[in-house]
Write a structure and sequence with these properties.
Layout lengths: L1 H23 L5 H20 L11 H29 L1 H8 L2 H12 L6 H14 L1 H4 L9 H27 L4 H19 L7 H4 L6 H20 L2 H8 L2 H12 L1 H4 L3 H19 L2
Helix pairs in contact: 1-4, 1-11, 1-12, 1-13, 2-3, 2-9, 2-11, 3-4, 3-8, 3-9, 4-8, 4-13, 5-6, 5-8, 5-12, 6-15, 8-11, 9-11, 12-15, 13-15
Length: about 290
């Protein structure tokens, strides 16, 4: 169940990155776009949480506080960085760098959460990371490519990896509804995105075209719900690398819809293939 949920989340996140690139071609306000996106995702989380609302009164407040802190990091701060990363480096290259998150997540899980060390998990994670390195060694990039996007994507990757471990820690150790955790995480992320966005005039939503980020937020919300459900059913060292198949989905969809602006070469496809191989290996040794 955890692997299926993780794959659904990964496919949606890969689509989200491409959708963000398209939205950024129509809007000049990435910060405001990040706020709209996280806010729309929060609405999805609230709808998903309605069936379990009766159990909210029994939730552990300390666990929720940890979830809120993690949500402030990602998607809060990370969401603000991610939109800028996609604008600077492009959808395909951002998602490839982001696919390196399993290295950070698995190391934290093995050290801090005392999860078992298995050769298959380690080798699979290494393959995924090698796939992420493809963006560094490719020969051709679009003229609009800027390395600051790669740096921002790497920062987002670390923030999301930390979020993954805190989420798994609290969803496994506490009697906490995954959908309630989604709401708390996205609410904290929305607050951080609001603080980080100086342009708070609602009229700017129409003037600067940021409503195009609403569909991005809806896809992000569904991806987030399935991700938290995956962490409620499986270990970080299994779920996080499977989620990294978002790299494959992102590169393939970029090739289909952003071929002219992304200039996707064979090395990026090879990197995506390594990510898939690593994820499959992890699934076998789970």
């Amino acid at each position: 169940m955890a692997i299926l949920l993780a794959l659904i989340s990964a496919s949606l996140f890969g689509a989200l990155t491409v959708m963000m690139r398209i939205a950024l071609q129509r809007s000049d306000a990435p910060g405001l776009g990040a706020l709209v996106m996280v806010g729309a995702a929060l609405l999805v989380g609230l709808v998903a949480a309605l069936p379990s609302i009766g159990s909210w009164g029994n939730a552990d407040l300390r666990a929720l506080a940890w979830i809120a802190v993690a949500g402030a990091l990602a998607p809060g701060l990370a969401g603000v960085f991610y939109t800028r990363a996609v604008r600077a480096a492009g959808a395909s290259r951002t998602v490839v760098v982001f696919g390196m998150a399993p290295l950070v997540a698995v190391v934290i899980a093995l050290v801090a959460l005392d999860e078992p060390v298995q050769a298959g998990l380690i080798v699979g994670t290494v393959l995924i990371v090698l796939g992420g390195l493809a963006v560094v060694f490719e020969r051709s990039r679009p003229a609009s490519f800027r390395w600051i996007g790669v740096v921002l994507a790497a920062g987002c990757m670390s923030l999301f990896a930390a979020r993954d471990n805190v989420t798994r820690w609290k969803l496994s150790g506490e009697q906490l509804s995954p959908t309630l955790a989604v709401v708390v995480s996205l609410a904290a992320g929305t607050v951080v995105a609001l603080i980080a966005t100086p342009e708070r005039d609602p009229r700017l939503l129409f003037r600067r075209g940021t409503l195009v980020f609403v569909p991005c937020g809806l896809v992000f919300g569904v991806s987030y719900v399935t991700l938290f459900e995956a962490y409620a059913h499986g270990r970080v060292s299994v779920v996080s690398p499977i989620v990294a198949t978002e790299t494959l989905f992102g590169v393939v969809l970029s090739a289909l819809f952003l071929r002219r602006s992304e200039l996707i070469g064979p090395r990026l496809f090879a990197g995506a293939a390594l990510v898939v191989a690593g994820s499959a290996l992890i699934g076998i040794f789970r």
